[in-house]
Recover the amino acids of this structure.
């Protein structure tokens, strides 16, 4: 009996596969988070300008998914960064305009202890940053280690000297609009120093996964970079973007008032003397874009050569776009396409294979920077954060044609919004005025269709997408000298 039982047990054991040792949990991937300031679609892979030189951003796009219809949630630095870093829309936080003071760091509802960097730190990540990442919230409080901003927007000529754009009785602030070749050496530029710091960090071994944020300032004004970057774009060969004189004649009065920027260059100034300053301005912006792309390349090269080449997710974006003469302006501060649309690339870690999509994909669905927070959590295997108001982009990474929401929202001042779908841009102002543009037929947004009866059904659909409630202005927002409309608007809303 014992022999028979033993025989059966032996036979049973032989028929079973060998037991596998318990698997160790895969290490969490690192996150390289690259922010670029004031970059519009003048990027090679986005075809925004035929002369744009961005080989490094282009090669990153080939590694992941390029979102060709991505948009910020606020078309100026502070609101945009407050939104994407917190995961809340401006109409929820109340940060509609530039924040100041210490109100953001004291705010535990949306900001202090609740930024995306804080969430990564709470889940075992070492968080590091350099350059311009936050705006209105101290970077030193957002990250475990902060490398600094290195003189912010970079060196400026001594004595308040300006090269091309002069405004009487307006003091030089360091970020005022101007363009020209300066300084002599790129090592003097803040962005070069930020790249140096990031390169050093990427060469280091790390016992824990890291979240590294690298914030570049250019092409933010002033459009200053060394001469060698200007030399890439001979002035006589510079191609000007398409513009239309009188482009604002068919927009509502409130749109003209909100978008007025007395201290910024206008199209008439650019077009004087056979477009002399227009060519110089475009040349300078292209030079700044080429320069910052080079810095991006230095960081990507360091990643590829270092110990974290295989296990690092890369996200690259701009906080908002920029007009170069379109809509009668050289600036951001608008609800139109050039200001609201941003470059956005999401490249999975090499170790993730095709788990998050195939390399070199394009996605035309309307997405926002608000979607980055939940996307990064999911790609790094972290628990979802219920308060995030954006949607993870992972379904679109896996299938760029997947079902997605109808539009994405951008807000500029309380009560004033734009919504972008795959084909249309819709604007709605606090007095009920509207604009509508068909990007299939009118990519320059030259013809406002909002008053045409054939679009009544579409307008109704867009209106349903507008926020039902809007928070009052956050205590951190301060009254700024934007224009007469803003002064009255902010006073009306109790902003001091």
């Amino acid at each position: 009996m014992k022999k028979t039982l033993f025989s059966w047990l032996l036979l049973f054991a032989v028929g079973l596969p060998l037991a596998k040792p318990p698997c160790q949990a895969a290490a969490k991937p690192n996150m390289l988070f690259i922010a670029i300031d004031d970059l519009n679609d003048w990027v090679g892979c986005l075809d925004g300008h035929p002369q744009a030189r961005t080989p490094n951003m282009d090669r990153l796009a080939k590694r992941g998914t390029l979102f060709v219809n991505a948009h910020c949630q606020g078309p100026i630095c502070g609101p945009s960064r407050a939104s994407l870093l917190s995961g809340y829309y401006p109409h929820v936080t109340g940060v509609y305009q530039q924040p100041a003071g210490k109100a953001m760091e004291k705010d535990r509802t949306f900001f202090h202890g609740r930024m995306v960097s804080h969430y990564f730190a709470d889940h075992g990540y070492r968080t590091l940053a350099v350059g311009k990442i936050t705006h209105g919230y101290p970077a030193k409080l957002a990250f475990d280690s902060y490398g600094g901003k290195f003189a912010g927007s970079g060196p400026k000529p001594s004595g308040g000297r300006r090269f091309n754009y002069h405004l009487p009785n307006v003091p030089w602030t360091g970020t005022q609009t101007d363009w020209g070749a300066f300084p002599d050496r790129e090592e003097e530029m803040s962005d070069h120093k930020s790249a140096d710091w990031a390169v050093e960090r990427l060469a280091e071994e790390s016992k824990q996964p890291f979240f590294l944020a690298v914030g570049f300032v250019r092409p933010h004004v002033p459009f200053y970079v060394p001469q060698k970057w200007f030399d890439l774009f001979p002035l006589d060969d510079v191609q000007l973007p398409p513009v239309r004189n009188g482009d604002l004649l068919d927009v509502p009065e409130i749109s003209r008032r909100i978008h007025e920027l007395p201290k910024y260059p206008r199209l008439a100034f650019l077009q004087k003397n056979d477009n002399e300053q227009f060519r110089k301005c475009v040349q300078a912006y292209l030079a700044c874009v080429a320069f910052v792309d080079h810095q991006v390349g230095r960081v990507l090269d360091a990643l590829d050569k270092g110990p974290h080449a295989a296990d690092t997710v890369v996200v690259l974006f701009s906080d908002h776009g920029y007009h170069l003469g379109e809509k009668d302006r050289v600036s951001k501060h608008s609800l139109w396409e050039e200001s609201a649309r941003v470059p956005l690339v999401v490249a999975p870690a090499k170790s993730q294979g095709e788990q998050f999509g195939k390399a070199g994909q394009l996605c035309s669905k309307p997405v926002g920077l608000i979607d980055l927070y939940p996307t990064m959590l999911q790609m790094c295997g972290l628990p979802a954060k219920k308060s995030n108001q954006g949607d993870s982009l992972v379904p679109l990474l896996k299938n760029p044609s997947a079902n997605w929401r109808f539009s994405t929202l951008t807000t500029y001042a309380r009560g004033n919004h734009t919504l972008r779908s795959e084909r249309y841009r819709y604007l709605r102002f606090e007095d009920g005025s509207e604009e509508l543009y068909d990007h299939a037929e009118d990519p320059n947004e030259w013809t406002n269709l909002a008053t045409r009866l054939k679009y009544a059904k579409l307008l109704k659909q867009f209106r349903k997408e507008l926020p039902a409630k809007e928070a009052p202005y956050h205590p951190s927002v301060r009254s700024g000298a934007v224009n007469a409309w803003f002064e009255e608007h902010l006073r009306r809303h109790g902003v001091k």
